[in-house]
Amino acid sequence: ILKMGNLFAQEREETCKVAKKNHGRFRAQEGESIERIVQGHAVMFIFRLLGPLIILTVGITIGAIIGATDAWWGIGIITVCLLMSLVIFYKVWLDFNFDVLYITNKRLMFQRRDLFGFFTNETTYESITNIRPDGTGFIRNIFKYGDIHIDTAAMSATLSYFGCHRPHTIVEHISTNRQRAIGKLRQETGGGSVSGDNSNGQ
């Protein structure tokens, strides 16, 4: 199962590499190109499947036991657990395929898909004050996945992306773009300081 998940992730990554202007609902602006598309690690998808599988297994077991004496109650319990499992599975599938972080040459765009509708949030590189990768933990270290937390100049504004592959590599990419954007802004403003420029990107 892990091997299949890894192959699927590699195929999805190759597909993302050719997307420079459009991907899903994301449309690049004029003069903007997609440099990297960050999506969830396949291991996260597999781990999150355990929830609906446990619910379905428990429901079938209890339904079979109760169904031995009352068939309708047994069928009812199994049906409810099946519907719950399908809803949870659908949400896990949405998170895995549509929760995306777009890294462009001008900005970061966070996209999240809920059961009903999309949610997007974006920030420019100049407004980023700190970037923190988090890959701590035994399981995370083995499968090389973790979280990214991005602090911005807005009051109490922290943007986070959870469960991505090789978070330190992604942070390095964002830090490079941030330093380039800050350098360009300084040139345009005559070399003045940039507010919030107190981070080394780590």
Nutshell version of this structure?
The protein is of the alpha+beta class.
Describe the structure.
By secondary structure, this protein is α+β, with helices and mostly antiparallel strands. It contains six helices and nine strands; from the N terminus they run αβββαααββββαββα. It has helices at 2-17, 42-48, 50-67, 71-98, 138-143, 167-188, and strands at residues 22-23, 26-27, 34-39, 100-104, 107-113, 118-124, 128-134, 145-152, 158-165. The strands form three sheets. It has a four-stranded antiparallel sheet with strand order 3-4-5-6. The protein has a three-stranded antiparallel sheet with strand order 7-8-9. Strand 1 and strand 2 form a beta hairpin. The longest helix has 28 residues, at 71-98.
Counting DSSP H or I runs of 4 or more residues, the number of helices is 6
How much of the sequence lies in strands comes to 25-35%
- Global shape: elongated
Widest β-sheet, arrangement of strands: 3-4-5-6
The number of strands is 9
Could you tell me the mean pLDDT? 82
Largest sheet: 4 strands, antiparallel
Question: Which residue ranges are poorly predicted, with pLDDT under 50 across at least 5 consecutive positions?
Answer: 196-202
Strand pairing plus helix content: what structural class? alpha+beta
Radius of gyration: 22 Å
Summarize the helix and strand pattern as letters.
Answer: HEEEHHHEEEEHEEH
Distance between the termini: 33 Å
Portion of residues in helices?
40-55%
